Amino acid sequence: MGLTARPIGHTYPNVTKRFAGLPMAKLSIIIAPDPRLKLKCEPVAAVDDEIAKLMEDLLDTMYLAPGVGLAAPQVGRPIRVIVVDPSGKDDERAPVKLANPVLLWQSDELVTYEEGCLSLPDMYEDVERPAKIRVKYLDETNTERELEAEGLLATSIQHEMDHLEGIIFTDHISKLKRNMIMRKLAKVKKQKAQAAD
Questions:
Q1: What was the pLDDT predicted at 24?
Q2: Nearest Cα to 86, choosing from 163, 13, 155?
Q3: Which of the residues 27, 102, 119, 168 has the least number of beta carbons within 10 Å of its own beta carbon?
Q4: Is residue 139 part of a domain?
Q5: Is residue 9 domain-resident?
Q6: C-beta of residue 116 within 8 angstroms of C-beta of residue 5
């Protein structure tokens, strides 16, 4: 039996209120099923002003959604940029901004978290991943860094790095469960499109 914690992309009461009045960029989050979520992303040449601004916009969008991670392809940018912040609603923010993340090491020990995704609203399933990782990346100042992570931070980084490969968390679960989730999301998208007409 693995550890279950709040899911990636889970909504929290009062979190929007916590950030009320702050200037925030709200990027449009792509909802599955969508072929753009299955694209393999290209690395960025460097973290310049445009990429640093994208990182901030991703964070703002993630906090407003609210969630604990967001990847550039989820907002229509097929580049290798992710942001995560697994801090709780009552904790001080602890954002991590990563460009061109590369997994250097992962533990043999596995942990199970109930994961969700801002691109798959209200859908959650248990996913097993390495409990600890070490990742190399460029930060928002274009400085190469390494980070060792465990727990929800490690899971969040791995979840968002999957998006850079065109993988969503449902690709880690049974085909039956995956198909059920995708059918539900397709139905919701169709209903919203019909309501908008």
A1: 53
A2: 155
A3: 102
A4: yes
A5: no
A6: no
Q: How many domains does the chain have?
A: 1
Distances (CA, A) of 2 to 47, 109, 114, 129, 189: 37, 11, 10, 10, 33
Query: Model pTM?
Result: 0.85
| DSSP strand pairing (144-150 vs 110-117) | unpaired
What pLDDT is recorded for position 20?
45
Cα–Cα nearest to 172, from 135, 139, 125, 131: 125
Chain position carrying tokens 């919203």 = 192
Q: Which one from 109, 125, 160, 165 is the annotated catalytic residue?
A: 160
Q: Nearest Cα to 94, choosing from 49, 137, 157?
A: 157
In sequence order, what are the residues at sequence separation of 6 or more whose Cβ sits closer than 8 angstroms to the Cβ of residue 127? 112, 113, 114, 115, 155, 159, 169, 172, 173
Q: Which residue has the higher pLDDT, 32 or 18?
A: 32
Residue 23 has pLDDT above 90, yes or no: no
Instruction: Answer yes or no: is 8 within a domain.
Output: no
Complete DSSP assignment for 41-52: PBPPS---HHHH
Average pLDDT, the chain: 88
Asked if residues 144 and 100 have their Cβ atoms less than 8 Å apart, the reply is: no
User: 67 lies in which domain range?
Assistant: 15-196
Q: CATH number, domain at 104?
A: 3.90.45.10
CA distance 96 to 92: 13
Asked about 160 being catalytic, the answer comes back as: yes
Is residue 27 included in any domain, yes or no?
Answer: yes
